[in-house]
């Protein structure tokens, strides 16, 4: 159980900073916890539980005015600290009521152009967002730009999405992507498994290595070192690494952030390549969707598609074992469904058809659309 807790007691990326605009709220989920992000009076990003303290209506159904979120139902208003600042139409002194009406907040971090939150114990969280293997030793200004930060939500459990990202040999399905990857016509070299790290190495036709690394600690992260290289002359030499982060949205959905890191020269070519690589990654994510749906349905029926038949699969099978513990461990918050009590019907009154007040129907569905790539910070 100790290990299971570490999955939750860490920071997870949940949105791109550039997508969070003032005057709007953004419903998100992490481990099934419904939360909203919005910008407060100082335009800082804040995170509250997406549930009004009055009657539990999702705050994301309301609106954000002057950095405060107002519930759509009775208009109670909350600031970025979750404090209730206004109860419309209450002529009494509402101070005591408002003091009891705070909405829980979640701590956030901003790093690498992403908003990170935790639903675990922030005191136990390691600075996992600082430990990204391919980013930690880089000069941020020189080596990466959030212009090339792509996110995509998948209709599948976190373990399915993260293992797919780690399983490099499935590049076979990616019609465009594989042409960008010299190693896709190369060969498998070796697998190296340690306690908290699994690494598979491939070699391309030029003898260059691609290291696909999955680390369990301090957070689960996937790194592709030497993913692609474009070398035409001494002066045109571009290398691309890829860092992938994942977050469990709920039991059936997950979010992946792909973070290409460009190095080399000339600089203008790096800038030209960024949107192209973004497009290719997004296109590739979409190609995975049907596979994910299939794997999710197998999983829903209690089946398993994890077969250790090839050395190509050895390391991600190892990672699968890490994730198994996390899989059905009760770490997910069940989204509550609010159904009003039924009133007893009088025999003399003809029965009316019951309106369905199920909260889930009145809510806007969580978008499954991918976040559009945009400009850098
Ligand atoms: S339910 Fe939110 S103000 Fe009443
Ligand atoms: Fe894929």
Descriptive report:
The protein has 377 residues and is α+β, with helices and mostly antiparallel strands. The protein has two domains: 2-108, Rieske Iron-sulfur Protein (3-layer Sandwich), CATH 2.102.10; 131-326, Naphthalene 1,2-dioxygenase Alpha Subunit, Chain A, domain 1, CATH 3.90.380.10. The protein contains eight helices and 17 strands. The chain has helices at residues 2-8, 95-99, 140-143, 158-166, 177-180, 267-300, 314-327, 359-362, and strands spanning 12-16, 26-30, 33-39, 45-49, 63-65, 68-70, 77-78, 84-86, 108-111, 114-117, 150-154, 187-193, 197-203, 209-215, 221-231, 237-250, 253-265. The strands form four sheets. Strands 11-17-16-15-14-13-12 form a seven-stranded antiparallel sheet. The chain has a four-stranded antiparallel sheet with strand order 5-6-7-8, with no helix packed on it. The protein has a three-stranded antiparallel sheet with strand order 1-10-9, with no helix packed on it. Strand 12 (187-193) and strand 13 form a beta hairpin. The longest helix has 34 residues, at 267-300. 36% of the residues are buried. Residues 1-5, 140-144 and 344-377 have low confidence and may be disordered. It binds FE2/S2 (inorganic) cluster (FES) and fe (ii) ion. FE2/S2 (inorganic) cluster is lined by residues 52, 54-55, 57, 71, 73-76.
- Give the low-pLDDT segments: 1-5, 140-144, 344-377
Helix content: 10-25%
Following the backbone from N to C, one meets helices and strands in this order, namely HEEEEEEEEHEEHEHHEEEEEEHHH
Quickly name the level 1 CATH class of the largest domain. Alpha Beta
Query: Over the alpha carbons, how many angstroms does the gyration radius reach?
Result: 23 Å
The number of distinct helices, counting runs of at least 4 residues, comes to 8
**CATH hierarchy: architecture of the largest domain:** Alpha-Beta Complex
Q: What is the CATH fold-level name of the largest domain?
A: Naphthalene 1,2-dioxygenase Alpha Subunit, Chain A, domain 1
CATH superfamily of the largest domain: Naphthalene 1,2-dioxygenase Alpha Subunit, Chain A, domain 1
Counting structural domains, the number is 2
């Amino acid at each position: 159980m100790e290990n299971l807790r570490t999955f939750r007691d860490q920071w997870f990326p949940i949105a791109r900073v550039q997508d969070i605009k003032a005057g709007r709220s953004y419903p998100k989920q992490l481990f099934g916890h419904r939360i909203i992000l919005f910008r407060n009076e100082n335009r800082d990003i804040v995170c509250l539980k997406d549930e009004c303290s009055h009657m539990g209506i999702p705050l994301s159904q309301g609106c954000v005015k002057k950095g405060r979120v107002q519930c759509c139902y009775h208009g109670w208003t909350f600031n970025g600290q979750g404090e209730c600042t206004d109860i419309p139409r209450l002529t009494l002194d509402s101070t005591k009521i408002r003091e009891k009406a705070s909405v829980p907040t979640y701590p956030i971090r901003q790093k690498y152009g992403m908003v990170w939150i935790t639903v675990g114990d922030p005191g136990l969280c390691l600075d996992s967002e600082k430990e990204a293997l391919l980013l930690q030793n880089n000069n941020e200004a020189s080596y990466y730009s959030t212009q090339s930060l792509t996110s995509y939500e998948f209709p599948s459990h976190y373990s399915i999405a993260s293992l797919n990202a780690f399983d490099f040999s499935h590049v076979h399905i990616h019609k465009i992507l594989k042409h960008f990857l010299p190693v896709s016509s190369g060969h498998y070299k070796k697998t190296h498994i340690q306690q908290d790290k699994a690494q598979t190495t491939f070699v391309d036709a030029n003898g260059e290595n691609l290291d696909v690394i999955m680390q369990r600690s301090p957070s689960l992260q996937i790194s592709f070192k030497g993913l692609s290289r474009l070398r035409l002359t001494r002066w045109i030499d571009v290398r691309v690494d890829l860092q992938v982060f994942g977050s469990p949205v709920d039991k059936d959905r997950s979010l992946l952030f792909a973070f290409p890191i460009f190095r080399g020269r000339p600089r203008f070519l790096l800038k030209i390549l960024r949107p192209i690589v973004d497009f290719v990654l997004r296109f590739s994510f979409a190609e995975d969707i049907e596979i994910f749906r299939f794997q999710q349905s197998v999983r829903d029926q209690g089946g398993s598609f994890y077969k250790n038949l090839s050395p190509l699969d050895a390391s991600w099978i190892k990672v699968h074992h890490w994730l198994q513990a996390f899989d059905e461990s009760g770490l997910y918050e069940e989204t509550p469904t609010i159904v009003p009590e039924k009133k007893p019907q009088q025999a003399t009154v003809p029965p009316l058809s019951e309106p369905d007040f199920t909260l889930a129907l009145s809510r806007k569905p969580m978008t499954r659309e991918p976040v559009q790539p945009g400009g850098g910070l």
